Amino acid sequence: MTKKETRTRVYCGPSVRGVARQYTCFTGELPEQMKKFVEQHPMAEGLIVPYDKVAQTRANMEQPALPGQPKTAERIIFEQLRAEL
Question: Quick check: 60 and 72 in contact, CB under 8 A?
Answer without folding.
Answer: yes
